[in-house]
Description:
By secondary structure, the protein is an alpha+beta fold.
Amino acid sequence: MRTFIAIEIPEKARQVVWHFIQGQKNKNLPIKWVEFENLHITLKFLGEIKPEKLDDLVSLLVGVSSKTKKFFLSLKDLGCFPGIRNPRVLWIGVAEGAEELNNLATIIDNDLTKLGIKKEEKKFHPHLTIGRIKAPCPVADIINQPLTTERFEVSEFILFKSTLTPSGPIYEKIKVFPLI
Length: 180
């Protein structure tokens, strides 16, 4: 089962992001935009997890959530990975809450090694992916636009199952982990 750990974006913030995406679609660039219902901030992509490891994974994540405090987060500004010369992913950055998000992702990443899951090689960069670039195209006019959401409370993180389909991924919640 293909899995990842993420934070969902509340409806109001999603609407702001979705409005921005809709405004970009008319440019007909080779960008696969993230669907409204799939907007989230990934804390850790796990990939394929064997069903027999699921109980241990859930138990470990309960431990993380039971000692992590709720925090506030806001999204601001745009960017791309790996860089402007050869962009592959468009994202919105995290303004308020970046440190807390980074700490949570680091704790999860470190704790998952107990289950034999490899640590991330790259440093965590808090962001919300909004599009994947399918062919070289200019994105400077996109990422130079202002975008800000109101702050919202992060009160949980979620273990998701991801099913890939020809029309795009389908995400299903496996378990929600409330923060204290």
